[in-house]
Amino acid sequence: MMPARRRRRFMTCTVVAAAFGLVGTQSFAASGDTRPRPWNARHQADIGRKHTKAVLAGHGRSALAAQGGDDGSDEAENSAEGTAQYTEARTAPGVVAPGAYGAAWAQLQSMPHTRGDWDHVTKKAYNSDDPRYRDINSNSSGGSGDVTGRITGIAADDQGYVYAGGANGGVFRSKTGGGHWQPIADKLPSLSTGTLALDSSKRLWYATGESNTGATSFVGTGVYVLADPQHGQFQPGGRVGGAELESTVIHALRFAGTTVWAATSRGVWSHSTTTLSGPWKLEFAPNPDYLPGGSKAADPSAPYKNIANDIAVDPKDPSKVLLAVGWRGGDTYNGLYGKQSDGSWKPVSGLGDLPTSSDDVGNVTFGAAADGSRLYAIDESPAQMASNPDSGLKGVYVSKNGSPFGPWTQIADYTKLKNSGSALQGAGYMPGIQSWYNQFLQVDPTNADHVYLGLEEVFETKNGGTSWITPGPYWNFSFPCWSIDPTKQTGDCSPTTHSDQHAVAIGSYKGKSWAYVGNDGGIYRRPLNGAVDSGGHAKDWQSLNDGTIDTLQYYSVGIGKDLDHGGVSITGGLQDNGQSILRAHDKVMGSNFGGDGGDTIADPANGCDIAEEYVYLDMWVTQDCGANNGAWATDPTKATEYEVAPPDKDLGGAGARFIAPIAADAKDGNTWVAGGRHVWVQTKGYAIRSGAEWKNAFDLGAGHVATAVASSGGTVYAGWCGPCNNQGFSRGIAVGNADGTGWHQLNLPVDATIPNRYISGFEVDPANAQHVYVAVNGFSRKWTEGPGAGYGHIFESRDGGASWTDISANLPDVPANTVKLLPNGGLALGTDLAVFYRPAGASQWQVLGSALPTTAVLQLKLGPDGELYAATHGRGMWSFDPRRLKH
Questions:
Q1: Residue 159 to residue 161: CA distance in whole angstroms
Q2: What is the torsional sign of CA 316, 312, 184, 813?
Q3: Can you list the positions of beta strands (E) in 384-472?
Q4: Are the C-beta atoms of 514 and 498 separated by less than 8 Å?
Q5: Which residues, 6+ apart, have CB-to-CB distance to 409 below 8 Å?
Q6: Can you say whether residue 534 is alpha, beta or left, with left for phi > 0 and alpha for psi between -120 and 50 degrees?
Q7: What's the order of all strands across the beta sheet hosting 193-198?
């Protein structure tokens, strides 16, 4: 019997100048194994191959298959395509000037707030292995335990203080070696974490702008320092230097004497650590013409041209510095650079085994021993990524004298790691398949030969790389110890970490040393020299995701009455953490669908009726909340989750956006609309059992895919884009009836009132289907920075879209994602910075309530309890009672 297949994932968002899609041909093959297995993975590998052929950016669907990798995987394409499409929504067409986000945040600070506070809904632990939810489409029993959103920075001291940074959730502090977390960066304009580091004076440095190669997340507003991290909180005035690093991604901070070096998406910079004022110094940019203000700054490829990944400083001679520079997909400037006697930086070669050619230097991470005796490196090869379907990892290396200039010796490649207890054994998904995304290195401060290595999994060596083990395997599904039986939890398997590693640190608490790792599921720890079983898998991982650290990255929210317990049941789709469900009186959240959760529909009258989208419009439905003890694994008739995807799912990226829109009709909950290339309608509600029950209401046109849909009383609005990237970007809105009649494309030339940017959300007036609002994503641009990019973020039509009025008024210039008409006639607008409110009859906007962290709000929905729910992409779910507002 095969274990539950993990469906994964969409990476997060960005506000930089272009999409950074995966350049490569890593696709995924099936082995032909036809044994029964969960989640009906029959066409997984085929989809991955089709997507890879379709676009170099990498389309794909899912993760590792079951035991032996029998149906292959396309997770690398999955995350890259999610990255690219989220980026497109905020940048196409053209480029966005640095400082746009900072300017919007500054304006936000001066705006008035309405009365009332937001309430934190998801402040409970989220158990991804909750034994209540082991239906066919769940990943429960994989071994990750309590999870939260992606953690991309960790720092720890020797007094039990641990600092964890969320991908778009800010910094949290623990005083107890992990757990009982407190947010300490919520006053900053950016909560996107590049890296965290403690310097020799025990100051905490926070580099904003998530450090996943090539800006695969929100950019930041620079580097901040907290002098007393054990007691204080980050303040905007604690920024180092000026605005030089605003709107960048910062991959690494490295300290040498009184200098701090920063590897960013716009080159390598340095600053004094003793005098924090004064500008950052640009040390090296391989293609300065592409930097802001340069002659080629407007080139669509500009964001790819100056990416720096890491810096290594010779501990014996701080004047000797090696820069790892390059775009993970490959470019002629990729390489390792050293400083010449004339002060210039030149590519170096002849370092031993460590590659130096542009073909083989991609994403690189260094890790130094505390005593300077060793220096380690991970190298992802663009050439290998493009040619090897199994892994992009070129190798792991050591400089045994601690010098960045070697000589370097290779100590691992992906096959050696695969044979070291890895769970990734299947063709097309082996260790390092996502080495462009997953990398960390940490050397034991007391033993230079003891190293923790992070890729998709956690690896460890205690002899300088001669041999390796896998203390943190991807999951337990492929091991003989695994069992779906909830009475056995994960069988005889020990808990593991969540997959996809990003951050690492070593600290101590009450005299005991701990290794901390951050990944797509949060933060975990184990004793630095912990116990392992006979397979080299750790027996002592502890999840630190206790509910007080909420960095969950939601795309959607659904709310319905909890008929069993009273109150409401709240569900939502998440980046790489499936679908969460929180029923009334629950002490912990559970996960009833696995992988990436996309858009969501829940029946307001019964919160156990749920439809969820995975990716590319792959929809599933349940009518019992997904509650199941795993009995379906031996009796298939006991499964209560059903795949009901419209036919566009089988076309992958050509048929639907990575996160595709779905909606129930506002007046008829049994009528659903789903948007891919076509507008699909079904009228059976949650009783649907097959994708064949969808009807094609309208073809949006070749190359067009839906970005937003809404329906009220049978009148349907569908926003689309195509092409969806900077080259030839186009958007439109189609309107028609759910029965397939009356469809037409609105006349929206690029110089129309609605700008030529992403259509991200609709709201239809329940009293008049011809009265509709549309939210527009992206930043406003001058006309020269993209055909018709225009201004404005919220527009209104009273004639079914024949004409539009810009009602943005005093809104900050920030991407808008979702709009909701409130019962009092007011409007709520969710954006990348805040939720705004416009009272009925008014023209000016206010900030809706207080206490909501500064993070992206991707969806707003009203619950049957009268509350307004916000799905944020970085700080969980929040609710607000609109009845607090004055009418």
A1: 6
A2: positive
A3: 393-399, 408-412, 440-443, 451-454, 458-461, 469-472
A4: no
A5: 352, 353, 397, 398, 399, 400
A6: alpha
A7: 193-198, 204-208, 223-226
Q: Reduce the secondary structure of 139-156 to three states and give it as a string.
A: CCCCCCCEECCCEEEEEE
| Side chain identity at residue 698, one-letter code | F
8 Å CB contact between 413 and 395: yes
Q: Using alpha carbons, list the distances in angstroms from residue 548 to 153, 168, 337.
A: 17, 16, 43
Q: What are phi and psi of 647, to 5 degrees?
A: -60, -25
Three-class SS string for 213-264?
A: CCCCCCCCECEEEECCCCCCCCCHHHECCCCCCECCCEEEEEEECCEEEEEE
Question: What pLDDT score was predicted for residue 65?
Answer: 23
Tens-digit pLDDT profile for residues 752-763 = 999 999 999 999
Residue 422 three-state SS? coil
State the burial class of residue 289 (Cβ atoms within 10 Å of its Cβ: 0-12, 13-18, 19+).
middle
Q: Cα-flanking dihedrals φ and ψ of residue 239, to 5°?
A: -75, 140
- Taking each helix axis from N to C end, the angle separating 44-54 and 75-91, rounded to the nearest 10 degrees, works out to 50
Residues 864, 562: Cα–Cα separation, whole Å: 10
Burial class (CB in 10 A: 0-12, 13-18, 19+), 312: buried
Burial bucket for residue 778 (CB in 10 Å: 0-12, 13-18, 19+): buried
Task: Tell me the backbone φ, ψ of residue 325, rounded to 5 degrees.
Answer: -130, 135
User: Any idea which of 66-75, 529-538, 604-613 has the lowest mean pLDDT?
Assistant: 66-75
Answer yes or no: are the C-beta atoms of 853 and 170 closer than 8 Å.
yes
Looking at the DSSP bridge assignments, the partners of residue 706 are 720
pLDDT in tens, 728-753: 899 999 999 999 999 999 999 988 99
| Tens digit of each residue's pLDDT (9 = 90 or more) over 31-43 | 222 222 333 322 2
Say whether pLDDT at 376 is over 60. yes
Q: How far is CA 736 from the centre of its chain?
A: 34
Q: The tokens of 331 are what? A: 């470019």
